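Please fill in the sequence for the structure shown.

STRUCTURE ENCODING:
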């Protein structure tokens, strides 16, 4: 499986890269046939005029490709690590639904 990680308005530190790789590999070790993953981490530099600080400005996006299907998710938070955790949760839900649909489809085709 190929994991591509890139930053937009943000440099990818070794700690962030290791966190992303570990979490995605742990999440997908029970799912076969993942072709590739593209992870984009970015920081939006917009500032809230009242509080003078950014809110939910660390954005994590993922595209996970399996043969014939592609999943996309996006999450944002005040902290990059939190946005990565939110992203993992969203992708996990999508992959679990996909696995459930696949198992139901194979059960129907067996009958």
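FILLED IN BY: designer on duty
SEQUENCE:
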């Amino acid at each position: 499986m190929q994991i591509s990680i890139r930053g937009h308005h943000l440099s990818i530190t070794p700690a962030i890269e290791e966190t992303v790789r570990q979490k995605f590999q742990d999440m997908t070790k029970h799912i076969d046939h993942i072709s590739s993953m593209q992870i984009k981490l970015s920081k939006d530099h917009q500032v809230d005029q009242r509080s003078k600080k950014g809110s939910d400005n660390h954005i994590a996006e993922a595209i996970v490709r399996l043969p014939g299907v592609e999943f996309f998710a996006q999450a944002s938070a005040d902290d990059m690590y939190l946005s990565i955790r939110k992203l993992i949760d969203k992708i996990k839900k999508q992959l679990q639904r996909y696995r459930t649909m696949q198992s139901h489809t194979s059960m129907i085709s067996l009958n």
